TrEMBL record:
Domain of life: Bacteria
InterPro entries for the chain: NAD(P)-bd_dom_sf (IPR036291), Sc_DH/Rdtase_CS (IPR020904), SDR_fam (IPR002347)
Coiled coil: none
Entries under Pfam families matching the protein: adh_short_C2 (PF13561)
Sequence similarity: Belongs to the short-chain dehydrogenases/reductases (SDR) family.
GO molecular function: oxidoreductase activity, acting on the CH-OH group of donors, NAD or NADP as acceptor; quinone binding
Gene3D superfamilies: NAD(P)-binding Rossmann-like Domain
GO annotation, biological process: fatty acid biosynthetic process
Protein name as it appears in the record: SDR family oxidoreductase
Keywords: Oxidoreductase
Upper lineage: Bacteria, Bacillati, Actinomycetota, Actinomycetes, Micrococcales
């Protein structure tokens, strides 16, 4: 590891092969971070493409395959990041799934999968990152994907809304427990973002997009701008917040 590399701050972004995670990874690279780009094995080629985009800008980057719902894979993801890039400063638990469904039709398997990825995935990513931050002794920044549904449930997304409320609770508790280590925890709460997440529900996308007061759908770059702030020293006094940024759909 060179002296230069150990001075460059390192960010890990989960679910970064496409969509919001990709936007965050590219933005943090522009901000000067070296970046670990995570996705599941099925999307390894997408994570590698994002890695290559970042390397083309002159920053260091790796692609690291892991399922965020798996304890051992998440531990290995953080260990690989530190081995390859030298340190860890920011961990963005972005990976998530969504499913429009009726509560009466929702199976236990669907419910558990939603919580395994969208809630356990944040818990495991943050826990592994916090262990690394504490070992390094210089604090760190934890970030996760909430949603405007973390504040006001979307009726067509019941399990998703419950899971995103859980992310908001975890964000508050993590902020309280790890403040003494100089670790902050904040989550972004977007609205209707133009990503493949909506591929299975184009009618829902159009319906929800039509309600946005600012008159356009949200782009991954809009979300990445908020995460850039969470990752920067400018947000050092903010912790435990799940910040709504949805074009005016939701107010707290
Ligand atoms: P997306 O479906 O476009 O991308 C999600 C990525 O996560 C994919 O690359 C996928 O392969 C990866 N992923 C899925 N399961 C994983 C796992 N177990 N381990 C690792 N990676 C996994 O979704 P997106 O729209 O970019 O959403 C990103 C996050 O933002 C999600 O948590 C989502 O709930 C949240 N969000 C999205 C919107 C929106 O409108 N798109 C709104 C609010 C919140």
């Amino acid at each position: 590891m060179s002296t230069t590399s150990s001075l460059t701050r390192v960010a890990l972004v989960t679910g970064a092969g496409q969509g919001i995670g990709r936007g965050i990874a590219l933005r943090l690279a522009t901000d000067g971070f070296d970046v670990a780009v995570n996705d599941i094995a099925r999307s390894a080629d997408k994570a590698e493409a994002v890695r290559d985009e970042i390397r083309a800008t002159g920053r260091r980057a790796i692609a690291v395959v892991a399922d965020v719902s798996d304890t051992d894979e998440v531990a290995a993801m953080v260990a690989t990041t530190v081995t390859e890039l030298g340190r860890l400063d920011v961990a963005v638990a972005n990976a998530g799934i969504a499913q429009a469904q009726l509560l009466l039709d929702t199976t236990v398997q669907e419910w558990d999968r939603m919580f395994a990825i969208n809630v356990r995935g944040v818990f495991l990513t943050w826990q592994a990152a916090a262990r690394q931050f504490i070992a390094q002794g210089r604090g760190g920044k934890l970030v996760a994907a909430g949603s405007n549904a973390s504040h006001r449930a979307a009726g067509f997304l019941p399990a998703y809304s419950a899971a995103k409320f859980a992310v908001r609770g975890l964000t508050q508790a993590a902020a309280m427990q790890w403040a003494e280590h100089g670790i902050t925890a904040n989550s972004y709460a977007p609205g209707v973002v133009n990503t493949p997440l909506w591929a299975g529900d184009p009618e829902g996308f159009a319906r929800e997009a039509a309600k946005i007061p600012l008159g356009r759908v949200q782009e991954p770059a809009d979300v990445a701008a908020l995460v850039s702030y969470f990752a920067s020293p400018d947000s050092d006094y903010m912790t435990g917040q799940t910040v709504i940024m949805d074009g005016g759909l939701t107010y707290n």
